[in-house]
């Protein structure tokens, strides 16, 4: 929680929701692309198959399968991660997206530094959270933790995506 407060102070001037919510191509980004961003992409794809939705990681050096704990938790939330393998974020991915959503402040900041010409389309998924989540906009990595931690993480992601979809005027 202390890290969240420090990040909130550090990045609060930069953090904001997307000004326009017209998007057809969404890119979710997290650290390793095996849990959070993969789940978020799968969840959003379930709502609108016409959207092009991808997920990538900032620290991916080889293809890695989602852990079994993530796969079983995701299935309970209606998302199948069994065929997912991690992929690194590239300039091509960023250039091809209308909206890029990071899971943590540090990832948001790193993406904006790595791709300065795309900074206006890089946002924090947690900005779309409900009031009960507003203090902590980070969606922390459940990797290596218990299934209940994956469930909590995936519930927060679902809440944020539901709000994102509603703000885009898509009926949930």
TrEMBL record:
Pfam families: LMWPc (PF01451). InterPro entries: LMW_PTPase (IPR050438), Ptyr_pPase (IPR023485), Ptyr_pPase_sf (IPR036196), Tyr_phospatase_low_mol_wt (IPR017867). It comes from the Bacteria. Gene3D superfamilies: 3.40.50.2300. PANTHER family: LOW MOLECULAR WEIGHT PROTEIN TYROSINE PHOSPHATASE, LOW MOLECULAR WEIGHT PROTEIN-TYROSINE-PHOSPHATASE ETP-RELATED. SMART domains: LMWPc (SM00226). This is protein-tyrosine-phosphatase. Its EC number is 3.1.3.48. It is an enzyme of class 3 (hydrolase). The active site is at residues 30, 36, 141. One of its GO terms (molecular function) is protein tyrosine phosphatase activity. Belongs to the low molecular weight phosphotyrosine protein phosphatase family. Residues 24-167 form the Phosphotyrosine protein phosphatase I domain. It catalyses: O-phospho-L-tyrosyl-[protein] + H2O = L-tyrosyl-[protein] + phosphate. Transmembrane segments: none annotated. The keyword Hydrolase applies. Keywords: Hydrolase, Protein phosphatase.
């Amino acid at each position: 929680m202390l890290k969240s407060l420090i990040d909130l102070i550090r990045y609060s001037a930069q953090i904001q929701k997307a000004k326009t919510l017209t998007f057809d191509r969404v890119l979710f980004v997290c650290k390793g692309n095996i849990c959070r961003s993969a789940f978020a992409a799968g969840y959003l794809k379930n709502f609108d198959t016409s959207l092009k939705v991808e997920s990538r990681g900032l620290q991916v050096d080889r293809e890695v399968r989602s852990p079994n704990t993530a796969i079983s938790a995701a299935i309970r939330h209606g998302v199948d991660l069994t065929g997912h393998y991690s992929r690194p974020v590239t300039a091509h991915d960023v250039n091809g997206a209308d909206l890029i959503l990071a899971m943590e402040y540090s990832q948001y900041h790193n993406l904006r530094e790595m791709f300065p010409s795309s900074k206006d389309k890089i946002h924090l998924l947690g900005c779309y959270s409900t009031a009960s989540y507003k203090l902590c906009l980070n969606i922390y990595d459940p990797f290596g933790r218990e299934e209940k931690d994956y469930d909590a993480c995936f519930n927060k992601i679902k809440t944020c995506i539901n709000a994102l979809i509603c703000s885009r005027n898509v009926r949930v």
